Amino acid sequence: MPDGHACAAAGGECVPVLEIVNVTKRFGGFLAVNDVSLTVNRQQIAAVIGPNGAGKSTFFNLITGYLQPTAGHIRLNGHDITGVAPHKISSYGMGRSFQRTNIFPKLTVFDNIQAAFLVHRGRGGNFWSRADRFYRDETEALLRQIGLLDQADTVGGTLSYGNQKQLELGLALASDPTLLLLDEPTAGMSANETHDAIRLLERIAGERELTLLFTEHDMEVVFSIAQKIAVLHQGRKIAEGTPAEVRADPEVRRIYLGHH
Amino acid sequence: MSRSLFDRIPWVLVIFIIALGIPWLGSKYYTFLATQIAILSLFAVSYNLLLGSAGLVSFGHAAYFGLGSYACGLLMKELGVPFLIALAAGGLMAAAFAAGFGFFCVRLTKIYFSMLTLAFAQIVWAICFQWNELTGGDQGISPIPYPGLNWLSSVPGLDGFRVGDYFYFVALAVVALCIAALHRISVSPFGRMLMTIRENPERASFIGVNVRAYELAAFIVAGGFAGIAGALFGIFNRGVFADFLYWPKSAEVLIMTILGGMNYFWGPVVGTGMLVVLNQQITAYTEYWPLVLGTILLVLLFAFPGGLLGALHAGWTRLRSGGRGVRPGA
Fold first, then answer.
1. Which member of A133, A236, B59, B189 has the greatest number of CB atoms within 10 A?
2. Confidence (pTM)
3. Are A108 and A172 found together in one domain?
4. How many CB atoms lie within 10 A of CB A152?
C-alpha cells in the first residue's frame, strides 16, 4: 500500500490509528457495507467517497459505534471497538462531527465546549461543585483555536451555519482525540465557507497532529486535502490509494467520476 | 454593565425570611397554605430535575412522593420511629424504588419513557390501594402522629405557637435544605451533563456522556427528594392515602412545573404557589371549581408558554432592553 506520504509525517514509521477489517453490515437482505477493510495511519488525512447510496453513512456509523457490524472488526489505537457504545469509544480517542450540525443549541458557545471538557476529564459525576468554574482556560484556548472566542457568550443555536460547524468541531476536539471523523464537513456551505472550513481543518489537524477520516461529496475538497482516498460503490470498496491513483483508476472513472 | 441594585438583592433569602415569618400573622389558614406550598414546592423542584434539566417527561413522579409518605407514615405510626429517621427513610425508600423502576424506564426514550413511568406508578398505586394489612387500602393510614416538637417552644421567641406552626417551621427548614441541595446539583457538572442530554442526547453520547447512567442518576435523586416531600406531606395531612400516588398527582406536579416555568430553577416554586392559592380561592367560591381552574390553567399555559417566570423574565428584559441578559436554566 503506497502510504509513504503519510508515514513520513509520523517519523517514517507507519502507526495504524484506525483499522477496519472485513466489516459487513446487513439490513435484512440488503448488504449496505460488504466486506470493507481500510487502515488509516497516524496523521494521515483520509477520505471515503462514493456515489449516493454507496454506503458511506452506514460505514461511518459502524466506525463510530452508532451501528453494530454484522461481521468484521474495528480497532482504534489498538483497542477493539467493535460493538462498543459511542460514549466509550470517545474515551479511546475518537472525536466525530456530524453531517447535520449537532450541537447543544440552547447552551452558550462557552458552555457547549466546557461541557465536553467536563465529561472527557471525568468530572461529569461531580454534583456538588459549580460547573462554571471548571476548565475555563482550556475552554478559552480551544475557542481561540477554532475561532469562536469572540462569540463565547452567544447561544449556540443562534450562530450562523458555518460557525455552528466550527462549534461542532470544537466539541469533537475537546475530548483531545487522536482520530477525527468528519461526516461531510462542508455540506451546505457556500464556496467561501467551504474554503475557510478546510483551511481551519488543515491547520488544526497539523497543530494537534490529528488523524482525519472524512466523507465528502465535494470532489474539489477531497482531492485538495486527502492523502488517501477509498471509493465505495454499492457497499463494496472498489478502489483505494493516493488521489492520483484513484483519479486514474478505470473503474472509478467509469462508475463514479464519469457522471460527476 | 454593572449589577443593578435589583440584582444585588438576595431574593431567595428575602422570600425565605418572609415565608419564615408567616406564623407571626397568627392565622391558622395562612400557615396551612404556606406549609402546603412549601412541601409541594419541593415535590415540583425535584420533578424539574427530570423535566427542566434532563428533558425527561415522567408521568409517574407521584409514585415516589407516595412511597415516601407511606414509608415515613408507617414507621412513625406503627413503630414509633423518630421523625427525622422516618423522614430520611421515606426519601431512601423512594430513591430505592426510583432506582429499580428507573433502570427500566431510561432504556426507553420520549413517550415510551413517559408511558413506562406511568405504568410503574399505577402498579404501585394498585398495590397500595389493595394491600389492606399494610397500607390500610382505601382507608389509608391515619392519624399519623405529629413529631414531638415541643422543644421548639423553649426556643426564645418561638413560644406560644400552635403545633401546626411548629411543624411548619420544621417543614420549611427541611424543604429549604433540600431545595438548596437540588440547586447545587442543578448548577454542578452533573447538572450540566443533564442539560446536554436534554439538548441533544445523541451528541451527548458522542462527547462521552453515558446517557442512560446519567438519566438513571437523575431519576433516583428526583425520586428521593420527592419521597422526602411526600413524607412531610403525610404528616402535614395527618394521614397517608393511595391518592398520593395516583396519576392525577403526577399530572399536578407536571402542571405546577410548566405553569411556573420549567426553564427556571424557581419556576416550579412559583407554579406551586400559584396552583395552591388558585385551588383554595376557587373552591371557596364555587362548586364548579375544577371547571374554573381548568379554564384558568388553559389560558395561562397558552398566554405564557414559558411559564410565569418566563413571562416575567421576558417583560423584565424588555423593560431594561440593552441590559445584560439572564440565561434561562442556568
1. B189
2. 0.88
3. yes
4. 17
**Chain A residues within an 8 Å CB radius of B207:** 90, 115-116, 119-120, 171-172, 174-175
Residue B123 belongs to some domain of the structure: yes
Which range of residues forms the domain containing residue B192? 25-246
Q: Is residue A246 part of a domain?
A: yes
* Continuous segment of H or E residues that includes residue B46: helix B28-48
How many domains does chain A fold into?
Answer: 2
Say how many CB pairs under 8 Å bridge A and B: 98
In a structure prediction context, what are the per-residue pLDDT tens digits for chain B, which is 330 residues long? 456 777 778 888 999 999 999 999 988 999 999 999 999 999 999 999 999 999 999 999 999 999 999 999 999 999 989 999 999 999 999 999 999 999 999 999 889 999 999 999 999 999 999 998 898 888 888 888 888 887 888 887 788 888 889 999 999 999 999 999 999 999 999 999 999 999 999 999 989 999 999 999 999 999 999 999 999 999 999 999 999 999 999 999 999 999 999 999 999 999 999 999 998 888 888 888 888 888 988 888 888 888 999 989 888 888 887 654 444 544
Q: How far does B102 lie from chain A, in Å, by closest CA?
A: 18
- Does the interface ipTM go beyond 0.90? no
Question: Which triple of cell numbers denotes residue A214?
Answer: 472524512
Count of domains observed in chain B: 1
Instruction: Please give the residue of chain A at the shortest CA–CA distance from B191.
Output: A127
> Residue A255 is part of a domain; what is its CATH number?
3.40.50.300
Determine contact, residues A91/A178, Cβ cutoff 8 Å. Answer: no
* Alpha-carbon gap, residue A102 to B212, rounded angstroms: 19
DSSP 8-state assignment for residue B189: H
